[in-house]
């Protein structure tokens, strides 16, 4: 029996990196995956790759920072697929490594809009149908920057700390109604995310590079997808409100 047999899984930021690896892994484990991303070509290529292997996926182009688009996508999925068993709030952007003093309101709103308000909008939109059905699993991609300073700029660090708080709140508020909500905090993973600016702040960049160089291990998106699969599946039935670090041991040193 596949680990997500016949589950409907909605994954944001699924056109690249960890979200794409999750989409491929979940589909290979029997899920029907809704591949959601803001970049259409990425959606198309992820969906085509999954379906070419005989697995099941379809795509939706959505900007998670736009509440109206999110609500529309969720309604459309519920009317077409009938339910959402698994939600992965994975879409995220970097902040150009800007320290707080150099962080404009525009940058703060942009980064919080995608990394924090996106998961809030998605979770609020999906919860009523999960509650009605008596359960569901939500997996948030946070970051070690959600637990420590010095792993990114201010806006990103604030957004990921907020996402950890969102995870714990949802887990505490709905555990008795069958909802599990957990977060993954990856360390450095080889993806397309970059620094979020062509001119990142040098001081913060050097601080982050120094901290990572001391450890030096870079993860692969599939290593995060393995953990997301476990958390999404019924194998993790007793795991709720957990904030799980997956960083190859970077932050233990
Ligand atoms: P990635 O850039 O390869 O993938 C992120 C995807 O999100 C992209 O396809 C992008 O188009 C999409 N996206 C961006 N803005 C969006 C929006 N407004 N609406 C919908 N989709 C949007 O990066 P990744 O590293 O795979 O990032 C996945 C998650 O992992 C992010 O939340 C990121 O913050 C987090 N993370 C990454 C690392 C790392 O080292 N790569 C470490 C810790 C946490």
* Strand segment tally: 7
Strand residue content: 15-25%
Number of helices: 7
Task: State the secondary-structure class.
Answer: alpha/beta
**Widest sheet, order of strands:** 3-2-1-4-5-6-7
Mass-distribution shape: globular
User: What portion of residues is helical?
Assistant: 40-55%
CATH level 3 topology: Rossmann fold
Uncertain stretches: none
For the record, the CATH class is Alpha Beta
Kindly report the name of the CATH homologous superfamily: NAD(P)-binding Rossmann-like Domain
Distance between the termini: 39 Å
| Average of per-residue pLDDT values | 97
Q: In the CATH classification, which architecture applies?
A: 3-Layer(aba) Sandwich
Total individual domains: 1
Bound molecules: nicotinamide-adenine-dinucleotide
Radius of gyration computed on alpha carbons: 17 Å
Largest sheet entry: 7 strands, parallel
Order of helices and strands: EHEHEHEHEHEHHE
Secondary structure elements and pairings:
Layout: E1 8-12, H1 17-28, E2 32-37, H2 40-52, E3 56-61, H3 67-81, E4 86-89, H4 105-133, E5 136-141, H5 154-174, E6 179-186, H6 202-213, H7 221-232, E7 243-246
The structure holds nicotinamide-adenine-dinucleotide.
Pfam family, one: adh_short_C2
GO molecular function, one term: oxidoreductase activity
Organism: Thermobaculum terrenum (strain ATCC BAA-798 / CCMEE 7001 / YNP1)
